[in-house]
Amino acid sequence: MFDENIATILAPYKKILILTHEMPDGDCIGSALGLAQGLKQKGIYTDVVMKTPIPEKYSFLPGSEEILLPDSLNKQVEAVIFVDCSDMERIGFNLKEFCPKINMIINIDHHVSNTHFGHFNLVDTQAAATGEIIYKLLLKMEAEITPDIATALYTALVTDSGSFQYDNTTSTTLKLAADLLDYGANRKTIKKYIWENSSLTDINVLKAALNSLSFSAENKIAYIYLSLNTINSLQVSDENFEGLINYPRSIAGVEVAIFFKEIEPQVVKVSFRSKEYVDVNQLAAVFGGGGHVRAAGCTLSCSLDDAIKQVLNVTQQRI
Ligand code: 5GP
Ligand code: MN
């Protein structure tokens, strides 16, 4: 934690970058946009940059149309704020290559696996979402919580807490969410775009994923997988995969749910969820990944079959 006013730290810098993790989700997008708008009120101008375009369902968020891709990064920029990233590699590209002059790194995050890589680290692992930390930060800066900021931060909270179902939901989360509604967060629009907006492709991907549903360790492990062939035949993009892991997780008696996604030949992205006792952050760390105790991920460089074998083997030892 740092006590310095972020606005004071950033004051000497003309333009600041805000970066988030690859495959952006509701928390990192909402947090980045809320922070950018709050800082702007204090005369601090930012560019929000993400490796890939955001999923369509978050495009209703005010300011999302200004999110840039790494190609348009300002090479002269010296200060950067990482949002919702447990380490610098999470952004998915080499920052030094694009911005060699960076000399100030601020790290705002809630992952237990955070490596405290910044010059200033604002890491609160009790926060259900990075959006919670951003909200408190904006209040401390005496920024006005506009309806647009409230909408961005409410989106962060509601998505990362699984609509306030996951164990990371605390009374603070709910109090902050209530405050954000009072500040004008557009709950109905958020609901419509995020949960009532499935495309036919989403449903076809769900069908394929459920078709792969398999079990291990006396049904305490449930997993699904999608091969590159299947993914290509369905013509899907990253955004069609969100929430799939909730299906194996939702099964009674399952402790660990795993989703294997072959993203390139010999590259498999793995998502983990657990319910009661398995620390999936530690599980993911075995393969160089990380995240939270109940939600984590990693990437393996091998075939889909090998990834499934290796990951199941390690998971079975911890169940
Ligand atoms: P998801 O399964 O939704 O992609 O990710 C679950 C959680 O684990 C998120 O908080 C995400 O940031 C984190 N996570 C996912 N993949 C990785 C990874 O490869 N490395 C690290 N450090 N964290 C990850
Ligand atoms: Mn998050």
Give a description of the structure.
The chain is α/β, with parallel strands linked by helices. It has 2 domains: 6-195, inorganic pyrophosphatase (n-terminal core) (Alpha-Beta Complex); 200-316, Diaminopimelate Epimerase, Chain A, domain 1, CATH 3.10.310.30. The chain is built from 12 helices and 11 strands. The protein has helices spanning 6-10, 26-41, 95-98, 130-140, 147-160, 171-182, 187-195, 200-211, 228-234, 246-249, 280-286, 304-318, and strands spanning 15-19, 45-49, 79-83, 104-109, 120-123, 214-216, 221-226, 256-264, 267-274, 290-291, 295-300. Strands 6-7-8-9-11-10 form a 6-stranded mixed sheet. It is globular. The structure holds guanosine-5'-monophosphate and manganese (II) ion (MN). Manganese (II) ion binds next to loops.
How is this fold's topology laid out?
Layout: H1 6-10, E1 15-19, H2 26-41, E2 45-49, E3 79-83, H3 95-98, E4 104-109, E5 120-123, H4 130-140, H5 147-160, H6 171-182, H7 187-195, H8 200-211, E6 214-216, E7 221-226, H9 228-234, H10 246-249, E8 256-264, E9 267-274, H11 280-286, E10 290-291, E11 295-300, H12 304-318
Parallel strand pairs: 1-2, 1-3, 3-4, 4-5, 7-8
Antiparallel strand pairs: 6-7, 8-9, 9-11, 10-11
The structure holds guanosine-5'-monophosphate and manganese (II) ion (MN).
Q: Briefly, what is this?
A:
The chain has 2 domains: 6-195, inorganic pyrophosphatase (n-terminal core); 200-316, Roll (Diaminopimelate Epimerase, Chain A, domain 1). It is built from 12 helices and 11 strands.
Per CATH, the architecture of the largest domain is Alpha-Beta Complex
- Provide the β-strand percentage band: 15-25%
Give the tally of β-strands: 11
The pLDDT mean sits at: 95
According to CATH, the homologous superfamily of the largest domain is inorganic pyrophosphatase (n-terminal core)
Low-confidence sequence ranges: none
CATH topology of the largest domain: inorganic pyrophosphatase (n-terminal core)
> Strands of the largest sheet, in order across it?
6-7-8-9-11-10
Order of helices and strands: HEHEEHEEHHHHHEEHHEEHEEH
| Basic shape | globular
Helix content: 25-40%
